[in-house]
Amino acid sequence: MTADHPDNLNEMLSVIADAMADGTPLSVSGCASKSDWGYAIADARPVSVDRWAGIIDYQPDELILTVRAGTPMTEINKTLANKNQMLGFEPPDPSVLFAKTDISNKGSIGGVLATNSSGSRRLTAGAARDFLLGFEAASGRGERFRSGGKVVKNVTGYDLSKLICGSFGTLAIMDELTLKTLPRPEVSKSVLIPATDLAAAVRHIAAILATPHEPSAAAILPSDIVALASLDSSLDSSLDYGQMLAVIRFEGFAISVNDRVNAVLSLYPDGDSIDDAASQTLWQAIGNTALLADAAGDIWKLSCAPSAAPSVINALPDEWPLRYYADWAGGLLWLDVPTGDVTGTILRQALADHGGGFAQLIRDSGNTRSLVPPFQPLSSPQMALHKRIKAAFDPKGILNPGRMHHAI
Fold it and tell me: Which fold has domain 290-370?
Protein backbone atom coordinates (compact mmCIF):
# COMPACT_ATOMS: atom_id res chain seq x y z
CA MET A 1 0.00 0.00 0.00
CA THR A 2 1.36 3.43 -0.96
CA ALA A 3 2.20 5.62 2.02
CA ASP A 4 0.44 8.91 2.68
CA HIS A 5 2.71 11.92 3.19
CA PRO A 6 0.60 14.69 4.75
CA ASP A 7 2.28 18.10 4.70
CA ASN A 8 0.98 19.34 8.03
CA LEU A 9 -1.08 18.52 11.09
CA ASN A 10 -4.35 19.60 9.47
CA GLU A 11 -3.83 17.10 6.67
CA MET A 12 -2.95 14.46 9.25
CA LEU A 13 -6.21 15.16 11.07
CA SER A 14 -8.03 14.44 7.81
CA VAL A 15 -6.14 11.16 7.44
CA ILE A 16 -7.09 10.21 11.01
CA ALA A 17 -10.74 11.14 10.40
CA ASP A 18 -10.85 8.88 7.34
CA ALA A 19 -9.22 6.06 9.30
CA MET A 20 -11.74 6.45 12.12
CA ALA A 21 -14.61 6.37 9.64
CA ASP A 22 -13.58 3.16 7.88
CA GLY A 23 -11.72 1.49 10.75
CA THR A 24 -8.40 1.28 8.92
CA PRO A 25 -5.37 1.21 11.25
CA LEU A 26 -2.50 3.60 10.52
CA SER A 27 1.17 2.63 10.56
CA VAL A 28 2.86 5.95 11.35
CA SER A 29 6.58 6.59 10.88
CA GLY A 30 9.11 9.31 10.17
CA CYS A 31 12.32 8.22 8.46
CA ALA A 32 11.45 4.57 9.22
CA SER A 33 14.87 4.07 10.81
CA LYS A 34 13.27 2.13 13.69
CA SER A 35 10.70 0.23 11.66
CA ASP A 36 12.24 -3.06 12.81
CA TRP A 37 11.42 -2.34 16.47
CA GLY A 38 8.25 -3.91 17.78
CA TYR A 39 5.59 -5.84 15.90
CA ALA A 40 4.67 -5.21 12.29
CA ILE A 41 1.19 -3.68 12.01
CA ALA A 42 -1.10 -5.89 9.94
CA ASP A 43 -3.34 -4.49 7.20
CA ALA A 44 -2.40 -0.91 8.03
CA ARG A 45 -2.36 2.21 5.91
CA PRO A 46 1.21 3.58 6.00
CA VAL A 47 1.54 7.25 6.90
CA SER A 48 4.84 9.12 6.98
CA VAL A 49 5.63 12.48 8.59
CA ASP A 50 8.91 12.78 6.67
CA ARG A 51 7.68 16.06 5.13
CA TRP A 52 7.28 17.61 8.59
CA ALA A 53 10.86 18.80 8.57
CA GLY A 54 12.52 22.05 9.51
CA ILE A 55 13.64 24.19 12.40
CA ILE A 56 10.86 26.53 13.53
CA ASP A 57 12.72 28.50 16.20
CA TYR A 58 16.16 28.29 17.76
CA GLN A 59 17.22 30.53 20.65
CA PRO A 60 20.78 29.51 21.59
CA ASP A 61 20.97 32.05 24.44
CA GLU A 62 17.83 30.54 25.99
CA LEU A 63 18.86 26.94 25.25
CA ILE A 64 15.57 26.37 23.40
CA LEU A 65 15.02 24.60 20.07
CA THR A 66 11.65 24.16 18.33
CA VAL A 67 11.49 21.80 15.35
CA ARG A 68 9.02 19.73 13.36
CA ALA A 69 8.88 16.03 14.19
CA GLY A 70 10.19 14.83 10.82
CA THR A 71 13.38 16.89 11.00
CA PRO A 72 16.39 14.59 10.44
CA MET A 73 18.77 14.23 13.37
CA THR A 74 21.63 15.08 11.03
CA GLU A 75 20.14 18.55 10.46
CA ILE A 76 19.50 19.12 14.17
CA ASN A 77 22.98 18.01 15.20
CA LYS A 78 24.58 20.26 12.58
CA THR A 79 22.50 23.28 13.63
CA LEU A 80 23.35 22.82 17.30
CA ALA A 81 27.04 22.19 16.60
CA ASN A 82 27.25 25.53 14.77
CA LYS A 83 26.34 27.19 18.09
CA ASN A 84 28.49 24.82 20.15
CA GLN A 85 25.43 23.16 21.66
CA MET A 86 23.91 19.68 21.77
CA LEU A 87 20.97 17.59 22.94
CA GLY A 88 21.97 16.56 26.44
CA PHE A 89 20.50 13.06 26.29
CA GLU A 90 22.94 12.14 23.50
CA PRO A 91 20.42 10.53 21.09
CA PRO A 92 21.88 7.32 19.66
CA ASP A 93 21.94 6.37 16.00
CA PRO A 94 21.42 2.59 15.76
CA SER A 95 21.23 2.59 11.95
CA VAL A 96 24.51 0.67 11.74
CA LEU A 97 22.73 -2.40 13.16
CA PHE A 98 20.33 -2.43 10.23
CA ALA A 99 22.77 -1.52 7.44
CA LYS A 100 20.92 1.77 7.06
CA THR A 101 23.93 3.88 6.22
CA ASP A 102 22.21 6.42 3.98
CA ILE A 103 21.85 9.81 5.67
CA SER A 104 18.06 9.73 5.20
CA ASN A 105 17.83 6.58 7.32
CA LYS A 106 19.57 7.97 10.39
CA GLY A 107 16.32 8.92 12.04
CA SER A 108 14.20 11.95 12.83
CA ILE A 109 13.74 13.79 16.10
CA GLY A 110 10.15 12.57 16.23
CA GLY A 111 11.32 8.97 16.06
CA VAL A 112 13.89 9.59 18.78
CA LEU A 113 11.23 10.96 21.12
CA ALA A 114 8.54 8.45 20.16
CA THR A 115 10.94 5.69 21.22
CA ASN A 116 12.51 7.68 24.08
CA SER A 117 15.92 6.77 22.65
CA SER A 118 18.56 7.97 25.10
CA GLY A 119 22.32 7.59 24.85
CA SER A 120 25.19 7.18 27.26
CA ARG A 121 24.73 10.56 28.96
CA ARG A 122 21.30 9.44 30.14
CA LEU A 123 23.09 8.13 33.25
CA THR A 124 23.73 11.66 34.50
CA ALA A 125 21.71 14.06 32.32
CA GLY A 126 18.39 12.25 31.99
CA ALA A 127 16.40 10.59 29.22
CA ALA A 128 14.98 12.03 26.00
CA ARG A 129 11.61 12.66 27.69
CA ASP A 130 13.32 14.92 30.23
CA PHE A 131 14.40 17.32 27.47
CA LEU A 132 11.02 17.68 25.74
CA LEU A 133 9.53 20.93 27.05
CA GLY A 134 6.39 20.96 24.94
CA PHE A 135 4.76 19.64 21.79
CA GLU A 136 1.77 19.88 19.48
CA ALA A 137 0.17 16.65 18.31
CA ALA A 138 -2.88 14.91 16.87
CA SER A 139 -4.58 12.25 18.97
CA GLY A 140 -6.32 9.13 17.71
CA ARG A 141 -9.57 11.03 18.34
CA GLY A 142 -8.69 13.29 15.45
CA GLU A 143 -8.07 16.22 17.81
CA ARG A 144 -5.19 18.67 17.87
CA PHE A 145 -3.70 19.29 21.32
CA ARG A 146 -0.72 20.94 22.97
CA SER A 147 1.26 20.12 26.08
CA GLY A 148 3.96 22.11 27.84
CA GLY A 149 5.49 25.23 26.37
CA LYS A 150 8.68 26.99 25.35
CA VAL A 151 10.15 27.75 28.76
CA VAL A 152 12.12 25.36 30.94
CA LYS A 153 10.01 26.00 34.06
CA ASN A 154 6.58 25.55 32.48
CA VAL A 155 4.83 23.24 34.96
CA THR A 156 1.14 23.92 34.28
CA GLY A 157 -1.18 21.02 33.50
CA TYR A 158 -0.30 17.36 33.02
CA ASP A 159 3.24 16.60 31.87
CA LEU A 160 2.20 14.59 28.83
CA SER A 161 5.77 14.62 27.49
CA LYS A 162 6.64 11.81 29.89
CA LEU A 163 3.69 9.78 28.62
CA ILE A 164 4.00 10.36 24.88
CA CYS A 165 7.77 9.78 24.76
CA GLY A 166 8.34 6.06 24.46
CA SER A 167 4.79 5.29 23.29
CA PHE A 168 5.94 4.46 19.73
CA GLY A 169 3.22 6.53 18.10
CA THR A 170 0.41 4.51 19.68
CA LEU A 171 -1.16 7.50 21.50
CA ALA A 172 -0.58 10.54 19.30
CA ILE A 173 1.32 11.86 16.29
CA MET A 174 3.66 14.67 17.31
CA ASP A 175 4.45 17.61 15.06
CA GLU A 176 5.93 20.74 16.65
CA LEU A 177 8.50 19.86 19.34
CA THR A 178 10.29 22.19 21.76
CA LEU A 179 13.44 20.85 23.37
CA LYS A 180 15.97 22.00 25.90
CA THR A 181 19.54 22.16 24.60
CA LEU A 182 22.85 22.22 26.46
CA PRO A 183 26.28 23.76 25.82
CA ARG A 184 28.69 21.33 24.19
CA PRO A 185 31.59 20.46 26.53
CA GLU A 186 34.99 21.87 25.63
CA VAL A 187 36.82 18.58 26.20
CA SER A 188 35.97 14.90 26.62
CA LYS A 189 38.39 12.41 28.16
CA SER A 190 37.86 8.87 29.37
CA VAL A 191 39.50 6.85 32.11
CA LEU A 192 39.97 3.13 31.44
CA ILE A 193 40.18 0.84 34.46
CA PRO A 194 40.87 -2.90 34.14
CA ALA A 195 38.70 -5.32 36.10
CA THR A 196 38.78 -9.05 36.71
CA ASP A 197 35.09 -9.50 35.90
CA LEU A 198 31.82 -7.64 35.37
CA ALA A 199 31.06 -7.40 39.09
CA ALA A 200 34.42 -5.76 39.77
CA ALA A 201 33.88 -3.28 36.92
CA VAL A 202 30.46 -2.35 38.32
CA ARG A 203 32.03 -1.76 41.74
CA HIS A 204 34.77 0.45 40.28
CA ILE A 205 32.21 2.60 38.49
CA ALA A 206 29.94 2.84 41.53
CA ALA A 207 32.88 4.03 43.62
CA ILE A 208 33.78 6.73 41.07
CA LEU A 209 30.17 7.88 40.76
CA ALA A 210 30.19 8.39 44.53
CA THR A 211 33.09 10.86 44.30
CA PRO A 212 32.69 14.59 43.54
CA HIS A 213 34.45 14.16 40.17
CA GLU A 214 31.20 14.18 38.13
CA PRO A 215 31.65 11.69 35.27
CA SER A 216 29.13 12.08 32.45
CA ALA A 217 28.97 8.43 31.36
CA ALA A 218 30.22 4.99 32.34
CA ALA A 219 30.37 1.74 30.36
CA ILE A 220 31.88 -1.72 30.71
CA LEU A 221 33.55 -3.53 27.81
CA PRO A 222 34.56 -7.22 27.95
CA SER A 223 37.94 -8.03 26.42
CA ASP A 224 36.47 -9.28 23.12
CA ILE A 225 34.57 -6.00 22.70
CA VAL A 226 37.67 -3.97 23.58
CA ALA A 227 39.38 -5.67 20.65
CA LEU A 228 36.65 -4.31 18.36
CA ALA A 229 36.78 -0.79 19.76
CA SER A 230 39.93 0.29 17.88
CA LEU A 231 41.57 1.37 21.12
CA ASP A 232 44.90 -0.36 20.67
CA SER A 233 46.73 2.71 19.38
CA SER A 234 45.39 4.81 22.26
CA LEU A 235 46.32 2.49 25.13
CA ASP A 236 49.47 1.91 27.11
CA SER A 237 50.63 -1.46 25.78
CA SER A 238 52.52 -2.18 28.99
CA LEU A 239 49.30 -2.38 31.03
CA ASP A 240 47.16 -5.49 31.46
CA TYR A 241 43.51 -4.68 30.77
CA GLY A 242 42.23 -8.01 32.05
CA GLN A 243 38.82 -9.49 31.30
CA MET A 244 36.84 -6.26 31.61
CA LEU A 245 37.43 -2.60 31.00
CA ALA A 246 35.47 0.03 32.90
CA VAL A 247 35.25 3.20 30.79
CA ILE A 248 34.36 6.43 32.60
CA ARG A 249 33.93 9.69 30.69
CA PHE A 250 34.64 13.18 32.00
CA GLU A 251 33.54 16.33 30.15
CA GLY A 252 33.77 20.06 30.59
CA PHE A 253 36.49 22.70 30.56
CA ALA A 254 39.94 21.30 29.84
CA ILE A 255 41.54 22.26 33.15
CA SER A 256 38.68 20.72 35.12
CA VAL A 257 38.60 17.53 33.05
CA ASN A 258 42.36 17.05 33.41
CA ASP A 259 42.17 17.52 37.18
CA ARG A 260 39.31 15.04 37.53
CA VAL A 261 40.94 12.44 35.29
CA ASN A 262 44.19 12.70 37.25
CA ALA A 263 42.32 12.42 40.55
CA VAL A 264 40.61 9.21 39.45
CA LEU A 265 43.83 7.74 38.05
CA SER A 266 45.49 8.39 41.41
CA LEU A 267 42.88 6.07 42.91
CA TYR A 268 43.40 3.46 40.18
CA PRO A 269 47.12 3.42 39.26
CA ASP A 270 46.59 0.44 36.93
CA GLY A 271 44.27 2.56 34.79
CA ASP A 272 44.86 4.68 31.71
CA SER A 273 43.12 7.50 29.87
CA ILE A 274 42.35 8.47 26.29
CA ASP A 275 42.22 11.98 24.89
CA ASP A 276 39.37 13.95 23.37
CA ALA A 277 39.33 12.50 19.84
CA ALA A 278 39.67 8.86 20.91
CA SER A 279 37.15 9.37 23.71
CA GLN A 280 34.52 10.83 21.38
CA THR A 281 35.04 8.04 18.84
CA LEU A 282 34.71 5.35 21.50
CA TRP A 283 31.55 6.79 23.05
CA GLN A 284 29.94 7.21 19.66
CA ALA A 285 30.54 3.51 19.03
CA ILE A 286 29.18 2.61 22.48
CA GLY A 287 26.03 4.72 22.16
CA ASN A 288 25.28 3.73 18.56
CA THR A 289 25.83 0.00 19.29
CA ALA A 290 28.47 -0.06 16.55
CA LEU A 291 30.45 -2.48 18.75
CA LEU A 292 27.89 -5.15 17.83
CA ALA A 293 27.40 -4.15 14.19
CA ASP A 294 28.88 -7.44 12.93
CA ALA A 295 26.74 -9.57 15.26
CA ALA A 296 25.39 -12.77 13.75
CA GLY A 297 22.60 -13.27 16.28
CA ASP A 298 19.71 -11.22 17.59
CA ILE A 299 20.43 -7.93 19.37
CA TRP A 300 18.62 -7.44 22.69
CA LYS A 301 18.60 -4.48 25.03
CA LEU A 302 18.23 -5.24 28.74
CA SER A 303 17.63 -2.66 31.46
CA CYS A 304 18.28 -3.64 35.07
CA ALA A 305 19.86 -2.34 38.25
CA PRO A 306 23.62 -1.98 37.66
CA SER A 307 24.33 -4.15 40.69
CA ALA A 308 22.20 -6.92 39.15
CA ALA A 309 23.99 -6.96 35.79
CA PRO A 310 26.65 -9.55 36.80
CA SER A 311 24.00 -11.96 38.10
CA VAL A 312 21.88 -11.54 34.97
CA ILE A 313 24.85 -12.30 32.70
CA ASN A 314 25.97 -15.24 34.85
CA ALA A 315 22.47 -16.72 34.63
CA LEU A 316 22.71 -17.10 30.84
CA PRO A 317 23.68 -20.49 29.37
CA ASP A 318 27.41 -21.16 29.14
CA GLU A 319 26.98 -22.70 25.71
CA TRP A 320 25.64 -19.50 24.19
CA PRO A 321 28.01 -17.68 21.80
CA LEU A 322 27.34 -14.58 23.88
CA ARG A 323 28.79 -11.15 23.21
CA TYR A 324 27.74 -8.14 25.23
CA TYR A 325 28.73 -4.84 26.77
CA ALA A 326 27.15 -2.53 29.33
CA ASP A 327 26.31 1.18 29.35
CA TRP A 328 24.72 3.33 32.08
CA ALA A 329 27.19 2.03 34.71
CA GLY A 330 25.95 -1.51 34.07
CA GLY A 331 22.25 -0.68 33.96
CA LEU A 332 21.92 -1.11 30.19
CA LEU A 333 23.11 -4.38 28.64
CA TRP A 334 23.50 -4.79 24.88
CA LEU A 335 23.62 -8.47 23.89
CA ASP A 336 24.35 -10.46 20.75
CA VAL A 337 22.60 -13.78 21.44
CA PRO A 338 21.27 -16.79 19.51
CA THR A 339 18.13 -16.14 17.51
CA GLY A 340 14.85 -17.75 18.55
CA ASP A 341 12.03 -17.63 21.09
CA VAL A 342 13.89 -19.64 23.75
CA THR A 343 16.47 -16.87 23.99
CA GLY A 344 13.87 -14.25 24.85
CA THR A 345 12.36 -16.47 27.52
CA ILE A 346 15.76 -17.09 29.11
CA LEU A 347 16.69 -13.41 29.08
CA ARG A 348 13.45 -12.34 30.72
CA GLN A 349 13.67 -15.08 33.31
CA ALA A 350 17.21 -14.00 34.18
CA LEU A 351 15.94 -10.47 34.75
CA ALA A 352 12.98 -11.66 36.81
CA ASP A 353 15.24 -13.79 39.01
CA HIS A 354 17.56 -10.88 39.76
CA GLY A 355 15.47 -7.87 40.63
CA GLY A 356 13.42 -7.41 37.49
CA GLY A 357 13.98 -5.26 34.45
CA PHE A 358 13.07 -4.75 30.82
CA ALA A 359 14.16 -6.78 27.78
CA GLN A 360 13.54 -5.48 24.26
CA LEU A 361 14.37 -7.17 20.97
CA ILE A 362 16.18 -4.54 18.89
CA ARG A 363 17.37 -6.50 15.85
CA ASP A 364 15.77 -9.73 14.73
CA SER A 365 18.25 -11.75 12.68
CA GLY A 366 15.82 -14.63 12.10
CA ASN A 367 12.13 -14.99 12.86
CA THR A 368 12.21 -14.16 16.56
CA ARG A 369 9.77 -11.26 16.38
CA SER A 370 6.95 -13.61 15.37
CA LEU A 371 7.72 -16.02 18.22
CA VAL A 372 8.36 -13.84 21.26
CA PRO A 373 7.09 -10.41 22.36
CA PRO A 374 9.67 -7.82 21.24
CA PHE A 375 8.81 -5.62 24.26
CA GLN A 376 8.78 -6.70 27.88
CA PRO A 377 5.38 -8.36 28.53
CA LEU A 378 3.06 -6.42 30.81
CA SER A 379 1.53 -7.72 34.01
CA SER A 380 -2.28 -7.80 34.20
CA PRO A 381 -2.49 -4.51 36.17
CA GLN A 382 -0.02 -2.87 33.79
CA MET A 383 -1.97 -4.03 30.75
CA ALA A 384 -5.22 -2.72 32.23
CA LEU A 385 -3.62 0.69 32.80
CA HIS A 386 -2.16 0.76 29.28
CA LYS A 387 -5.56 -0.07 27.82
CA ARG A 388 -7.21 2.80 29.70
CA ILE A 389 -4.57 5.25 28.51
CA LYS A 390 -4.86 3.97 24.92
CA ALA A 391 -8.65 4.35 25.05
CA ALA A 392 -8.33 7.94 26.27
CA PHE A 393 -6.07 9.01 23.40
CA ASP A 394 -7.08 6.58 20.65
CA PRO A 395 -10.49 5.01 21.42
CA LYS A 396 -10.82 3.27 18.04
CA GLY A 397 -7.26 1.91 18.14
CA ILE A 398 -6.07 3.27 14.79
CA LEU A 399 -2.62 4.64 15.74
CA ASN A 400 0.08 1.95 15.39
CA PRO A 401 -2.16 -0.71 16.98
CA GLY A 402 -0.23 -3.70 18.28
CA ARG A 403 3.15 -2.08 17.63
CA MET A 404 4.27 -2.63 21.22
CA HIS A 405 1.74 -5.16 22.58
CA HIS A 406 -0.85 -7.18 20.64
CA ALA A 407 -3.78 -6.17 22.84
CA ILE A 408 -3.21 -2.43 22.37
Answer: Alpha-Beta Plaits (3.30.70)
